[in-house]
Amino acid sequence: MPNEGMRKRKAVYILLALLMAAAVWLYVDNFGNNGGPRQVEVELTGIPITYIGESGLADRGLMLLAEGSSETVDLTLTGSRFQLMHLDPEDVRVVVDLSKVESAGIQSISYQSSFLDRRFSSNMIKERSITSATVNISELNNRTVDVICDLVGNVAEGYSAGQPQLSQTTLEIRGQSEDIDPVSYVKVTLDIGENAVESISQSLSFQYYGENNQLLDGTGIHPTVQTIQASLFVYVTKDLELEVDFQEYPGLREDNLDYVIRPGIIAVSGEAGLLRGINSITLGKLDLMDLYSSDVKRHTFSIIVPEGCENLSGVTRATLEIDFADLERAHVTTERFQHINAPSGKQVTILTGSLNVSIFGTAEDVAAVTGEDITVTADLSSYSGASGTYNVPAVVEVNTPGDVGVSGTYQVQVTIQEETAPEPDDDLEE
């Protein structure tokens, strides 16, 4: 019997010979006898044509008809077997651009072929079943139909809403007669949700309906717009309090006033969003210092409601009747004086010995003020280069826990002079 080892070596030699033969066959099949790649062909059939620019056709009153227009292309490609074995027919694109079509009729338009896989190019196309696409262009018919809005949802209790407002109430549609003639109207649906408390506005797509409210699929219909804006304004009625903005001062506070506004409240209707957070209307502003100096006890204001709202009360003017309920006036004499911002290198002497100050506030706060509680301060910042005697404006301050104001303007007399050097001490000279 042959040696077992010899049999195994023989099997290996046979396997190597087969592999070498296969390699030679692959080489010759792919590169030919001259060493260059062997070219093979592959035929791709039924490649669909993609049409672009159809929306522009509709704008020009035209449309592409499937009947009579090329639908597919057959291509024959050439390349190496190794290269073409990686070709995926789904990567081949054939595109016809309709953007330059201006008239109706059967026309021939060249197409562009391309490959999604960059390993392939249009140079590999050897033959084409057609050199250009045949397109059947037809004029669009048009008609105008009504736009209907279907409202879904509800407004919250205490709120109200009117009819939905549409950006347009009719719509022009284009297409073949058999496609657009069955359309009776188009409908948008505005969903405001549950218990709506504010206005809503949405851009909505629409659906086509025929007779007997039958829903149509819309195939072959070209509308002039793709969406319609629908809005619903939600309103609320509120009672708003009328107020006056008082400019306060020490001793002159709103708490010192006894006043009434007639009417005190008005009813206003408006969009919920506009009136959200608004609970009052400010009629105007009153300076309590001016009021303190005046004998006028009655003021009239125009009632101006927030923009976009309606005054339901029918009253356009309000009256303020006002007086000071607890305001006491008194005169207090003080002898407390000081000065600030004295000129450098100069001596200042306040000549005024006492000053009668007019104060006001509640009876309790005014009664508690004494002369020791009042300080009069002369500001010399405008007298930096002056010398002599001057009447200088002064600020009066009341230093008590109470809320007390000062009325009137005040000044004190001061003398400004150069500082004198101290005389020498005779005892030190001896």
What does this entry look like structurally?
By secondary structure, this protein is mainly beta. Helices cover 14% and strands 47% of the residues. The chain has eight helices and 33 strands. It has a six-stranded mixed beta sheet with strand order 16-15-13-9-12-17.
- From the N-terminal CA to the C-terminal CA, the straight-line distance is 155 Å
Arithmetic mean of pLDDT: 88
Shape: elongated
Number of strands: 33
Provide the low-confidence segments as ranges. none
The oligomeric status of these chains comes to single chain
| Percent helix | 10-25%
Short structural summary:
The chain has 430 residues and is mostly beta strands. Helix content is 14%, strand content 47%.
Q: Could you outline the blueprint of secondary structure elements for this entry?
A:
Elements (H helix, E strand, L loop, with lengths): L3 H28 L7 E14 L1 H6 L2 E4 L6 E9 H4 L7 E6 L7 E5 L2 E4 L9 E4 L4 E7 L1 E12 L6 E3 L3 E2 L3 E6 L1 H4 L4 E7 L8 E5 L2 E3 L5 E2 L5 E2 L4 E5 L1 E14 L9 E6 L2 E7 H4 L4 E8 H5 L5 E5 L7 E2 L5 E8 L3 E7 L2 E4 L5 E5 L4 E7 L1 H5 L6 E6 L8 E11 L5 E4 L2 E9 L7 H4 L1
Keywords:
5-stranded mixed sheet; mainly beta; about 15% helix; single chain; 8 helices; elongated; about 425 residues
